[in-house]
């Protein structure tokens, strides 16, 4: 499992970046996975992508990352009108580690960012670089912990820290709250908001936790192979499209 980076990796990469998707379509083996998908991710915005299992959320992320051929257009616009492809930090869905794995967070992180072999002693300068990266997600205290022994929320902090090195323009997270307890969910969402404000990032994440969207998301996209509804959280969660997709007769009622 790895956290991927896509785009230019020059110095000073963090900063405002907008994403515009128009009439996106994706096919796998003749099957239509996504069609007529259009939305905007504005600079510095946190947008939540919701939909049932199999709706195409992960496929949409992979398409934006440039991993899947598509029809339609995906455009980026950075400060000053720069339209070159930005650096995108990405955390994939449901990462798992063997609980008996002796590899530490330091080993894992150093191998990912510096290709440092896990069987060699890690130099002090690299150790401090890793600690500094982990502090971006308040995970510095996990430096010497075994990665297999971390909780779901702690793993997400480490992976988010890795996705932020080097600092991207856009951060994409696929189900970051999966396997995280209620307290951990709030901490992670507070941290996402802090990251957005600190580094001026645009953030796109998928979730099945609808109860927190009104507090943390600027906008919600309801997807089921196409965009069914997009708008402020309360507007989307109170919509007939949302109730129909999730088979709810009495509104959102604490659905997850």
Automatic annotation (TrEMBL):
The keyword Repeat does not apply. SMART domains: AAA. Keywords: ATP-binding, Nucleotide-binding, Transport. One of its GO terms (molecular function) is ATP binding. InterPro entries: AAA+_ATPase (IPR003593), ABC_transporter-like_ATP-bd (IPR003439), Metal_Ion_Import_ABC (IPR050153), P-loop_NTPase (IPR027417). Residues 19-250 form the ABC transporter domain. Gene3D superfamilies: P-loop containing nucleotide triphosphate hydrolases. PANTHER family: METAL TRANSPORT SYSTEM ATP-BINDING PROTEIN TM_0124-RELATED. This is Metal ABC transporter ATP-binding protein.
């Amino acid at each position: 499992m790895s956290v991927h980076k896509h785009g230019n990796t020059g110095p000073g990469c963090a900063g405002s970046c907008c994403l515009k998707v128009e009439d996106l379509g994706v096919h796998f083996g003749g099957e239509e996975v996504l069609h007529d998908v259009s939305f905007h991710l504005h600079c510095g915005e946190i947008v939540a992508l919701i939909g049932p299992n199999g709706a195409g959320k992960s496929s949409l992320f992979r398409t934006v990352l440039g991993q899947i051929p598509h029809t339609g257009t995906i455009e980026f616009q950075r400060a000053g009108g720069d339209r070159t492809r930005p650096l995108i930090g990405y955390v994939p869905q449901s990462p798992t580690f063997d609980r008996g794995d002796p590899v530490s967070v330091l080993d894992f992180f150093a191998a990912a960012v510096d290709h440092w072999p896990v069987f060699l002693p890690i130099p002090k300068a690299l150790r401090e670089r890793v600690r500094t990266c982990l502090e971006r997600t308040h995970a510095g205290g996990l430096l010497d912990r075994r990665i297999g022994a971390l909780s779901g929320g702690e793993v997400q902090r480490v992976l988010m820290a890795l996705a932020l090195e080097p600092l991207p323009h856009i951060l994409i997270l696929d189900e970051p709250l999966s396997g995280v307890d209620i307290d951990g969910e709030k901490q992670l969402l507070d941290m996402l908001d802090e990251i957005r404000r600190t580094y001026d990032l645009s953030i796109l994440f998928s979730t099945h936790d609808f109860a927190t969207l009104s507090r943390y998301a600027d906008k919600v996209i309801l997807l089921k192979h196409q965009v069914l509804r997009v708008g402020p959280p309360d507007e989307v969660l109170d919509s007939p499209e949302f109730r129909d997709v999730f088979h709810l007769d009495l509104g959102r009622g604490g659905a997850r």
